[in-house]
Amino acid sequence: MCFGVKSLFKGMQFQFKLFISFSVLTCVLLSVSTGLFYFYTGSIVEKNVVVTQQHTVQKIQEQLDLLLAQIDNMTISVNSSDMIMNVLENIPEIPDENYFDTYPKISEEIRNYLFSLTALKPLNGRISIVSKYHDFLDFSNQSDTQNITKSDVRKFAFVKEAMQTDRYKFFLPPHQDEWTSKGKSVFSVVRPLRSTNYEIQGLIEVSYNLEQIDRLFEVEGNSRVLQGAIFDQNQTLIYHNFNIDSSGDWLHDDNLDTANYGNYKVKNPESHRNYLVTFNKLAAVDWSMLLLEDNADFERPIIILRTMTWVSYFSIFAIFLIILYIYTRNITRPIRSLKQSVLSVNMDSLRLRLKTGQRNEITLLAQAFQDLLDEVKGTMDLMVESRSREMSAHMSAMQAQMNPHFLYNTLAVIGAYGIKKGNIEVMQMCADLSDMLRYTIDSDNGKTTLRSEVIHMQNYLKLMSLRFETDLQVEIDMDEALMEVPIPKLTLEPLVENIFRHAFMDVEPPWVLKMKGTVRNGRWAIEIKDNGRGFGAGAIRQIKHKMEEDRYLLQSGDYFDKSKGGIGMINTFMRLRLFYKGNETIEFYNSDQGGAIVVIGGPIGE
């Protein structure tokens, strides 16, 4: 599968490769940036919800604490009343009669006092006073008190607890109001009324309708009601304003036992809905106020944000794809034009059909490619010419080798004739010339030693000495250490031959030729010096210029022109350069005393 996709991608046009590559890169970048933006903003929204919930539950907790404090202040005021405490201390034990019903005037005084306590703020519940003998008095702004007896009062659980407790007060969680038959739910503060000697003379219960807590969860200016719950110090659910099972265990969390405030997440096992729970401990009593937020509610803006984010992502991606396609099409148009030009190249002319007027990188590349084609065509033409010359040289070599023994035998006959006539020099000349011809014609891959080169050069100089006699003076000083150094064949003789053909021309004898070979610092060097006319300024520039040309081996006139001294001095230098790969020594200049000096050399051991 991967191989097929890879093969398909390789077979695509460059424009589509570029388009797909940039599209994938853009898709990855947009996906990563969009995902990061989504998760970041989602976490910000969730954090804001948690902070808002914490502020809200803290506000509700403070309002409930204030409400409980108001209730508690009423109980303290009653306990501080000398009138009420005197009444309670002097109530006799009457088994069945209610003291406050028997003495209505005393009851009226107590009610007037209680009314004064609630004058500034309407009473939203009930105040009940019970004596130590269970006589009772009820004060409320509603006439809903049921007919009860002292025997009924004795059965009230909070009455029993208040008459026996050591605490100054205790809070009753939401419960059914014992004083009415209408089944109202209330929450209360109960305070034992103690005399100066700390004896319980009775109790006071101040209860508020549960509606007062319900109102705390109502949002002002909105019909929405926040979902809330309250746990007591035993982690028992004592209040909730939404549908829930009887226990509400799924609402409980260990954080309620250890922390004063915080948040956690729960799941309703009945509705399978997830909730974010924020809680705060009350200051007045060891209760925990809980505020629930349905995850679906606070995730709604996150979902909206997610939808808008992905819609924006796909919109931006689609627009970018259109722009990218147009851009890649325009940027690859010169490449397609270059491709068509390359495909239409004629091997006869090797010319590109370039559109002028554009000066971009592709056009410059096309021009460079055209220059390369011109170079290739020139190289092809030179190769054809070189091949032709090679064939010509091969034919010449074949002709030269058709019967070399004929030349050797002829030179032997001439030498024998010289001996017969008593001319030893003729025999020696023939022998030297025969050695030179054999050295020149023998095939040994063009490589020899300096010793063989020196011997070949000495044979040539012997012949030239016989020709010019006393007009020629030759001095040769060769270090034996360089005699076995490898060197291209026919290196020294062309340089010496060039001296006779050019340096000594139009110069009066005697002619002096000196050759010295030395070894120094791991390199060998041979200096050839003459007293001829020297190099002309133009000749030195021409030689250097030809040596710098890249196609020196294919130039006409240098390799086969016999008028320039065999294979020529320039090609001798070039063969030396090729042999030593640029590590050779080649110097040529005019001597201050007249004549020219040529120095060649190279490393020993290469």
TrEMBL record:
Its main location: membrane. The chain crosses the membrane at residues 18-40, 310-328. PROSITE patterns: HAMP. Residues 329-381 form the HAMP domain. Pfam families: HAMP, His_kinase. It is found in: Cell membrane. It is a multi-pass membrane protein. PANTHER family: SENSOR HISTIDINE KINASE YPDA (PTHR34220), SENSOR PROTEIN KINASE HPTS (PTHR34220:SF11). This is HAMP domain-containing protein.
